[in-house]
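#structure-requests
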Amino acid sequence: MEVIQINGIQQAYTRIGQGAPLVLIHGYPLDHTIWYDMVSPLEDEFELILPDLRGFGLSGFTDAQFTIADLTSDIASLLNHLGFEKAYIAGHSMGGYVALAFARQYPQRVLGLGLVSTQAPADTPERKQGRYAAADEILKSGVQPVAESMSPKLSPDERVQAFVRSLIAAQRSGGLAGALKAMAERDDSTSILTDFTFPVVIVHGAADELIPVQRAQEIKAAIPHATLLELSGVGHMPMMEDTQATATALKKLL
């Protein structure tokens, strides 16, 4: 990985492949390595940019609470550093919130948008309260309980469960807690969907326990030109559970 200083933090990222730039943004509570299975099927068409969001993986964070807008600014600054005015942007789960926020803030920089296992609405008051309670618990008890409780919810595939369990356990409590609070305070993106004129690809597992497939169907209904791929038997991790189908769908951004 490479590490650069941007926006007051150490920003870590990996750059692989050749072709049009495609930023793949990981979800919570993970890091860029969830996309590694996608490299082989995508690296001939895209130059893949795989960042660790601030607070995750090898990227730093500060004591100040960060927001989804901060994560969006980090992606924009990374693209500036790499010399890309425009790029394809794809995000998984929380990474999808960042991708949607990027499309809101920098629509002129988006060549196309990939939304994987994510949703457009903001949190309900109850969900927001739950995230803050979860953040407090992580700061008190650490990340291991999250690794144990979340891994079976992320995927029905035991191989994927084992991978994400270890991955979550390697994260930092402050990063996870900060991300939960950032997600709790994120803007609703429903109203901006109808503004998208660039290509949009939506990928969602029909067996997703964390974000129901209906959320993907709602995005598709708001963006008639979007491509929606629903994957039967797949949970919250399509890039690992059905790599080839997910990669084939993202290629439709071109």
